[in-house]
Amino acid sequence: MLLEEIMIKRILSVVALLVLSTTLSAQALLVDLSPVSGDVNGYPGSTVGWGYTATNDSLIDWILLTASDFSPLPSWGAYQDFIPVNFVLLAPAGNPGDSWTESFNVLTQTGVGSFLIDSLANPGDTATGNISISFDRYDGDPTIGGNYLGTGTAQASASVTVDAVPEPSTFFLLGGGLAGLLWVRRKSRSVV
Fold first, then answer.
1. What does the DSSP assignment read for 107-134?
2. Which domain holds residue 136?
3. What is the model's pTM?
């Protein structure tokens, strides 16, 4: 009877360790987009995009960001992934380097990615979906020999809306008003 009790305790201990290790390395990546709403706007033919903050909430896993995607992708736009351009490795939660923030810049290809709005897109068109960031998990820093544990994906809601391009008459009215103000100002200076 004593032998059976010892075996049961050992089995329960192993199960508890497995559950604990799975809990510690469960969903490891939290993603917040910039703008916080995930909503971006642009004119037909323009490029818009998102900055992001990625935070590792696992207590034991190292996280390497590998790719991003916007889906569902509408017919009037194209998504470009910036994640592979920038090597981002996150340390386990509570350690220096457990979070990374990048603002969007299309020229330097920073941020999570960009969305090119087709020049023939209709004002008011909106694509609502998710930005998904794929990552690899490691049991230590992979740059110094950490072992690969698997992959994961984190998502954040995002949308792209096509704005109407201001009509040329608006530019002419604005330009005419500015020219008139400058003429009045010049005239008032020459009278004094």
1. TTTBSSEEEEEPTTPPTT-EEEEEEEEE
2. 28-174
3. 0.73
